[in-house]
Design goal:
Blueprint: H1 13-21, E1 24-30, H2 67-81, E2 85-91, H3 101-111, E3 120-125, H4 132-142, E4 146-154, H5 158-163, H6 170-182, E5 186-193, H7 200-211, E6 217-222, E7 225-226, H8 230-238, H9 245-258, E8 264-267, E9 277-279, H10 286-299
Parallel strand pairs: 1-2, 2-3, 3-4, 4-5, 5-6, 6-8
Antiparallel strand pairs: 7-9
Helix pairs in contact: 3-4, 4-6, 7-9, 9-10
The structure holds iron/sulfur cluster.
């Protein structure tokens, strides 16, 4: 199958949604007030060192409002810009399967009925917050409507995992992917480029690692140093090197070149909260980053999977 029907030489999310639904689809980020086992002591304290005070849900709705109110607020804004848009409620902040299963079942089943234009739900969580029962419950919803689960990996390098205090093994991640795929649920993996002590080879190895797994999508972005994070304190002390835009573009394009061609690319640049960003400042201009990636791909005749090896 040729995935590159658009202007992009990669399997882009927009094209994927157009293929699936024939229209633009917008994800609406929600904050259900979940915490995380890496915050409350079940797996660790303090969280992943880069995790923001909003538990990586910087653009999610206001958690003091109901999920439906959050959805409606954001939906109105989107409809003013794109009146003919379909929606995916996106459970973004915290670990969104870290709660009793009956509660999860209730809120996810409510979310798919928020609006007739809802075509699926997306749920961000950790691999160690997926078990057989949760996968099965999500599988039941997936029989009614498209369910996508986003799992944070960040790096396949276990030393890096220790440094960033991920408190989840690659094996736990792999088990979650297997459980979800048994239920035919689409799995999207998050990775970060530019983590301290990582070489370019480490970042490419993370792509090679996910190529071997039954995952359907990837979100790639650069490390963001945000205010009030452990990473910000570490940076103050250690001043580790930060990727500049040029290097980031080069690495991402190489990753696209070795990425399995069927994997959908959901993101290639970070979406941080500009008010909390310390570094790198170039990430504030997401369109510039995306344009530079496009230019580099074209100039060097790179397309997704060009150098993919099984
Ligand atoms: S797993 Fe996610 S929510 Fe939990 S600490 Fe890490 S980045 Fe934050």
């Amino acid at each position: 199958m040729n995935y590159f029907t658009s202007a992009k030489p990669y399997n882009s999310l927009n094209e994927y949604y157009k293929r699936e639904y024939g229209k633009k689809v917008a994800k609406i980020s929600l904050n259900a007030g979940f915490t995380c086992p890496n915050r409350d002591g079940k797996k660790g304290y303090g969280g992943c060192i880069f995790c923001s005070k909003d538990l990586s849900g910087d653009f999610a709705g206001d958690k003091n409002k109901s999920l439906k109110e959050q959805f409606d607020d954001i939906k109105e804004v989107i409809l003013k810009k794109w009146p003919d848009t379909l929606f995916i409620p996106y459970f973004q902040a915290g670990s969104n399967t870290y709660a009793p299963i009956e509660y999860l079942k209730k809120i996810f089943n409510e979310a798919i009925l928020f609006d007739p234009k809802v075509v699926g739900i997306s749920i961000a969580t950790r691999g160690d917050c997926i078990n057989h029962d949760i996968a099965k419950m999500l599988g039941d919803i997936n029989k009614k409507i498209h369910v996508q689960v986003e799992l944070g990996l960040q790096s396949a390098n276990e030393k890096t995992s220790d440094y960033i205090n991920r408190k989840m093994t690659n094996q736990e991640f792999e088990i979650a992917v297997e459980l979800l795929r048994k239920e035919n649920i689409e799995v999207v993996c998050h990775i970060i480029n530019g983590l301290p002590n990582e070489t370019i080879d480490n970042m490419l190895d993370t792509i090679r690692y996910i190529n071997k797994l039954d995952i359907q999508g990837v979100k790639i972005h650069s490390l963001l140093i945000l205010k009030d994070t452990i990473l910000a304190d570490n940076y103050k002390k250690d001043k580790f090197p930060i990727l500049d835009l040029e290097k980031y573009v080069e690495i991402v394009c190489k990753q696209i070149s070795i990425l399995r061609p069927d994997i959908i690319i959901h993101r290639l640049a970070a979406d941080g909260n500009a008010n909390d960003l310390i570094l790198p400042l170039w990430t504030k201009k997401k369109m510039v980053v995306m344009n530079e990636i496009d230019k580099y791909l074209r100039k060097n005749n790179i397309y997704q999977g060009k150098e993919y090896k099984k």
